[in-house]
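Researcher: Here's my situation. A collaborator sent me these components and asked whether they could plausibly form a single complex. I don't have experimental data yet, so a predicted model of the whole assembly would be a useful starting point for our discussion.
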Amino acid sequence: MAKSSTKNTATGPIGTSNTGLIDLYRDMRRIRTFEERVGELFVRGASAGSMLHLSIGEESAAVGVAGLMREGDTFTTHHRGHGIFLARGADPKRMMAEIAGREEGYCHGKGGSMHIADMGLGHLGANAIVGGGIPAVVGAGLASKRDGEGAISVAFFGDGAMQQGILYESMNMAALWDLPVLFVCINNQYGMGTRIEQATKGRHLHERALAFGLAGETVDGRDVRDVQEVAARLIDGARAGQPGFMAVDCYRFFGHARMDKSPYRTEEDETEGRAKDPVSFARDAILDTEEAAESDLKAMDDEIEKEMDATIDFAVQGSEPPLASMFRDVYGPDEPEPEPVRTRIDRILARD
Amino acid sequence: MSEITYRDALKKALFDAMSEDDDVFIIGEEVGRYGGAYGVTKGLYEEFGAARVLDTPISEPAIVGAAVGAAMAGLRPVAELMYVDFIGMTMDQLGNQAAKIRYMFGGQIGVPMVLRTQGGTGRSAGAQHSQSLEAYVMHTPGLRLAMPATVADAYHLLRDAMRQPDPVVFIEHKGLYTMKEDVDFSASVPPWGKAAVRREGDDLVIVTYSRQVHHAMAAAAELAKKGIETTVIDLRTLNPLDMDTVRDHVERVGRVMVVAEEVMTAGVAAELSARIHEECFDFLHEPVIRVAGEDIPISVSVELERNSVPTTEFVREVAERLVADRVHS
């Protein structure tokens, strides 16, 4: 089961083979607009819960790294991983449906925003435990190394996970066994409401990876081309058996989740942080170099708006998962399902 | 038929599975060059090499996490956790990841891994190396749980565990590794998920698993001398749990003890007792009696350790009291 569904990966579009800034801009804009729609879905009361973590401001990390991955590569993400999955070619409609808890979603409404996954695209799962998805890439890396086909496995996580022990256990193993693995820390400066300075004295995050024998770099996330350049170097290394680590500096534009109004930071902080916007930086750069005209970009933005508007319609029109699906997939498909509590009680009370 | 130890039966299961399937590999602390803290994997490193018997640093969470990722990527990892007492270190990877991946991801993929470990008392190993923590596992949907009591089951249950589509926690008993039995490995055993009735009698049912099966059998032999005939049910797996076999015998006999080495409160024995009370209420002549470990940590002192958990004498004594008044039957 597991074997056939992962080794034969990928239908659909995988990432993009970006060469120009316009393509990178489009990919980042799609993420930005998608996540704005996630916010709308919540406001409309159509999302399943409020545990929605937006990566607005962090799009360059997703696009700069994931755009360079290829078919057969695998990855895990964290609770703020919509952008990474989109950058790897996810269908935004099925994503939005999953976020709304609908049957049409990637996980039939059981996973939601924080547990979305798609084996076809090599997405081994988003994770709601900080650092929880990291060691899986060690195992996937072992499998890739054995297969010898040059596939890599990438763990994406936030700066919060930099203080979790599992990261260091995993980096140590990856280095020890020369695994084709990349660790990507998207440093948005906040672990929930705790700013990174309040969480650690050691600010040069990649130096920790160097200490374990990984290749490591930190890059400013403002210019997606810089992110891509560093990612390309580290991904090439990983494919050759030199595991790597990269930290992408960026800024989380909004609160931790939908209910968080960020009372722990000032307006000045936010203004300064949002000035590092990778989407408007790319847009300005395109206009500066006259690679495209304002009207071209406007047309592109409009098209993306339309695409992402449709994701809300798709999600809202989606169906609730059938109640009987509740007991499905706890165990393998040929295994008996757990006995529902009501059935059990009926059985007990029906005795003669 | 050949005489073989529980330890060597486990090794044979690993050897046979690794010989048949290149995707099976072992990962854990001291499993390779050292041969396993209890010697179960001795010789496998020499036979299969470092890539398939993977020695790890002391990093229990990442050992389990790496096994999860490898299983998702199509391999068949058998991870070893040296002592079940370390399971707390791994509970995120085991309980939040391995157990829930199939469900959270809508059935896209399973995590076919085995986590071999060992538990229980008997070596004066102290409070952090002697526990019986199966209830932690049984309390988590998505995890299968096997606890072999016999040499034949050490082999067959481990082979079966490696064929499951879902993660299996496989808890050996440290007190059984040197136990020998004559085993015909070609002889059939109950299928995965079915209990074994080790002895049949009409006066009392003892439902048990792992090493306590042997205490129950020894007690039953003594009880027989006094004319008390005991049914001993070895559950073999706690998830799946074979309540059909338990019910059949409890309904026939009407007196039942659950015997377990774990601490009594909120344990496997408590779950079994609750189920038997609910499902067999009209057939019971007496309340279901739990004979389990004291609700205390395990001491290093041989005397304190031995008396912290059910002994043959204690099982026999309770059994005699339970059947003393047989007027109802």
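Model: Some features of this prediction you could bring to your collaborator: Chain B has twelve helices and 14 strands. Residues 6-20 of chain B form the longest helix (15 residues).
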